[in-house]
Specification:
CATH class of the largest domain: Alpha Beta
Mean pLDDT: 88
Distance between the termini: 79 Å
Oligomer: single chain
Number of strands: 14
Number of helices: 12
CATH topology of the largest domain: Rossmann fold
Strand content: 15-25%
GO molecular function: DNA binding
InterPro entries: HTH_LacI, LacI/GalR-like_sensor, Lambda_DNA-bd_dom_sf, Peripla_BP_I
Order of helices and strands: EEHHHHEHEHEHEEHEHEHEHEEHEE
Low-confidence stretches: 1-8
CATH superfamily of the largest domain: Response regulator
Keywords: DNA-binding, Transcription, Transcription regulation
Structural class: alpha/beta
CATH architecture of the largest domain: 3-Layer(aba) Sandwich
Strand order of the largest sheet: 4-3-5-6-7-13
Protein name: LacI family DNA-binding transcriptional regulator
Largest sheet: 6 strands, parallel
Helix content: 40-55%
Shape: elongated
């Protein structure tokens, strides 16, 4: 690192790193950009030099050299909810691993002007691509009216003929949950769903219904909620699910409210009624009883989304629709039915 008395210590350049590592500056650039065709010994030597010299890339120089800002824009609807928030964090983590930064714009309003303002704000920051986390059908329809021409990916479990989409397979996860209950002997399986304006809630409801039909069982009771534990508690107190030996809750928070309500009413979980959730929140293993649920792999979702966005930026063909498989996590809130026919 050079030093000039009039200007103080100077930051190391990519050429300084190259000299220290004994490679060309182009090799350093390839390492920084995650190029796969680099020997591990060379990659390690370059990364060691970067650490020792405390080298930081100039975003301005990088943009001039590559004609890219190395920045992804994320428009996220309903960011306080677990799914959208976890997806955003996963994309941020995946972006950092590939030396990209993320600018996000959050909205919870069904307002065309807000969606348009969000897109304009992100585009003004010089993003290379746009990721849209729009879990509600109403929000996605507004986005369609104001979409950008840049590479765009939508987080959505359902395929879309006009958009490139990726998501966790909500439908398969729901069928997995209901199949678990059927295998335990349950025949009266209710569903406390999320708001059916949400794509995930609709897919989970369809999965619940189709799995019951495939098993030759009649459709149980469906009560729509709003993803919250408070509403789950109200549903459990209301008696609307009485007569069911098992409940597939639309998410873990709804399941928590149901467990609370049933306990207050003297209905034992899982002795009298089994409950299964969806999401695998970090706290679910500490519910009383610990909750059987369906886990969404947001880390894998973020990595897939980032990979497809980068491919689109490079002008490569990308799949129209890809899904991440969910996983069933069996704990103590489900057991064999006491009311088998």
């Amino acid at each position: 690192m050079s030093e000039d008395g009039s200007r103080g210590p100077q930051k190391p350049s990519i050429y300084d790193v190259a000299r220290a590592a004994g490679v060309s500056h182009m090799t350093v650039s390839r390492v920084l950009n995650g190029h796969p065709n680099i020997r591990e010994s060379t990659r390690s030597r370059v990364l060691t030099a970067i650490d020792e010299m405390q080298y930081t890339r100039s975003s301005i120089a990088r943009a001039l050299a590559t004609n890219r800002t190395m920045r992804i824009g994320v428009l996220v609807d309903s960011p306080v909810q677990w799914g959208p928030n976890s997806t955003l964090r996963a994309i941020e983590s995946a972006a950092r691993a590939r030396h990209y930064s993320v600018s996000s714009f959050a909205t919870s309003d069904e307002d065309a002007e807000t969606i348009a303002a969000g897109i304009a704000d992100l585009v003004a920051q010089g993003i290379d691509a746009l990721c849209v986390i729009a879990p509600r059908s109403s929000a996605l329809e507004l986005f369609r009216e104001h979409g950008s021409n840049m590479p765009t990916l939508v987080i959505k479990a359902e395929p879309d003929p006009h958009l490139h989409t990726v998501g966790v397979d909500q439908y398969a996860g729901a069928r997995m949950a209901v199949r678990h209950l059927i295998d335990l002997g349950h025949r009266e399986i209710a569903h406390a769903s999320g708001p059916l304006d949400w794509y995930d809630a609709r897919a989970r409801s369809h999965g619940w219904r189709d799995e019951l039909r495939a098993a030759g069982l009649r459709e149980g009771r469906l009560v729509q909620g709003d993803w919250t534990s408070d509403t789950g508690y109200e549903i459990g107190l209301s008696g609307q699910l009485d007569g069911s030996t098992a409940v597939f809750a639309g998410n873990d928070q709804t399941a928590l409210g149901l467990v609370h309500a049933f306990t207050d009413r003297g209905i034992r979980v899982p002795d009298d009624v089994s409950i299964i959730g969806f999401d695998d929140l970090p706290e679910t293993r500490h519910f009383l009883p610990p909750l059987t649920t369906v886990r969404q792999d947001f880390t894998a979702l973020g990595a897939l989304a980032l990979r497809l966005l980068m491919a689109a930026i490079d002008g490569e063909d990308t799949p129209q629709h890809e899904l991440i498989a969910p996983h069933l996590i069996v704990r103590d809130s489900t057991s064999g039915s006491l009311h088998r026919p």
